Amino acid sequence: MAPERRTRTRARGACAGRPWAFLRLRTIHRKVSVLPLSKPPSPGGRSNQAPSAGRSILLLDCDAFFVQVARREDPDGAGRAERLLVGGSSGRGVVTSASYAVRAFGVRSGMPVAEALRLCPDALVVPVPRGACVERSRAIRAELETLAPVVQAASIDEFYLDLTGTGRLFAGESLAQTAARIRGRVHEATGILVSVGGATNRLVAKLAAGFAKPHATRAGGGGETGVFVVPPGREADFMASLAVADIPGVGPALAGELEQRGIVTVPDLLAVEPEWLARWVGEGRADWLRERALGRDDSEVTAGEARKSISAERTYGTDVPPGPAGNAELEGRLLELSMSVGATLREKGFRARTITVKLRDADFSTRQRSHTLPEAVESDRAVYEVGRAMLRDLRARGRATRLLGIGVAGFEDEAGVEQLDLIGPDEPGAPVRAESDRDRTLSRVADQVRARFGDDAIRPGRVMEGRAERDSRRRESDES
């Protein structure tokens, strides 16, 4: 039997005396197996310093964005409520955002409003002021584009800035000073408070922004100033203060798998021999984990050109035959593709009026149908239901299918869709339920959950059933 150890109380941060030092004590009471230890991490003979040391990246993250906007839109109601829930209505729907005073009761985004009210009964519940949120997000971006050469909107309330090469423009300023000045300009121009993380790459800048939050539980963080910057060369030291689950892209399933092997903190991860880690999680994922654990990320900040369409498709290795079973397979896959398209649509802050479904038959002929809606949509449900109606029409010819795709176009970034007269999937010409605030909120909350816990953290039951059926068929095929 492998010996056991207790994970110790760990000082989360740099040692005293470093100008950027922070300290966070975290006690973990778990019994874990002793790990195969490696030498101090230096995979491939590389140094621990991140390869992007010459870059200057900021991440601006709006503090409780929906709450701030709701308060500005209704100063006499929401504006006076310290305990505020945004999303749904009293007893219905899900929480899109909550004020920090409400979060202290354990309320989180994605929680049913009814449950949130049980935790904090005196909270005021208001709907999401979506139109005002879109306008405020645009205003923030417009202001940022006057301050930085490259601005990328990661979501409606998060923005990456690449300040690399602007040394002369900001002569005499440190990155932290520049971040503080930009933060002040955004607040002055839009009335929105933001937290700013800075580093030499996107990964560390995003994590640093969490230390800048006003109610961050990270001692030594930038909560009072709203700015936290990790200096060049300190990326690995900074990452060493974190849990593996803090790394973006590490969902609860992977974190749980690693924890079972005694890997809870980033130093735990880096102490494992690369060969063992590769055996446990796969070579590609192991390499990715070690790079992230050392604070390495070469992804670029890109402003991007205006997109004309967003699409996703799947090519089948074996043609999908006509008939009920084949139709069910394609509709399940269409739901997955619709969710992917919808997530990208919302990430870009768009809504779309035109939805297109494409099929490629077994003889390689391609057919497609398009439908333009009277008003733009963004929810997974709306994209899927319109697409499903067209898919059923295309499949009516009884041909085997080699490729399935769905796309959206005709973008708008205005909010406020209230009523749609869509073509229903069951009866030609029958209207389906309009895209509601609840549809949009559910899709956005699902986006937040997946961003935090991984793509598989929340999926419709139909998608999971479809995956299980495909896995079962694959196993049967392998056994035969």
Describe the overall structure.
This protein has 480 residues and is of the alpha+beta class. Helix 1 crosses helix 4, helix 4 crosses helix 5 and helix 10 crosses helix 11. The radius of gyration is 24 Å and the shape is globular. Among the domains are: 111 residues, 2-Layer Sandwich (Alpha-Beta Plaits), CATH 3.30.70; 54 residues, 3-Layer(aba) Sandwich (MutS, DNA mismatch repair protein, domain I), CATH 3.40.1170.60; 166 residues, Dna Ligase, domain 1, CATH 3.30.1490. Strand 9 and strand 10 form a beta hairpin. Helices cover 37% and strands 20% of the residues. The N terminus is likely disordered. It has a 5-stranded mixed sheet with strand order 9-10-5-11-12. A 4-stranded antiparallel sheet has the order 13-16-14-15, with helices on one face. The longest helix is centred in the last third of the chain and has 24 residues. The protein has 15 helices and 16 strands.
CATH superfamily of the domain at 309-474: DNA polymerase, Y-family, little finger domain
Q: Helical proportion? A: 25-40%
SS field, number of helical segments: 15
Low-confidence stretches: 1-51, 414-433
Structural class: alpha+beta
CATH architecture of the domain at 309-474: 2-Layer Sandwich
Can you identify the CATH class of the domain at 309-474?
A: Alpha Beta
Query: Cα distance, first to last residue?
Result: 39 Å
* Beta-strand percentage range: 15-25%
Shape: globular
Q: Main sheet, how many strands, which sense, barrel?
A: 5 strands, mixed
Mean pLDDT score: 79
Quote the CATH topology of the domain at 309-474.
Answer: Dna Ligase, domain 1
Total strands: the figure is 16
Integer-rounded radius of gyration = 24 Å
Q: Biggest sheet: strands side by side, in what order? A: 9-10-5-11-12
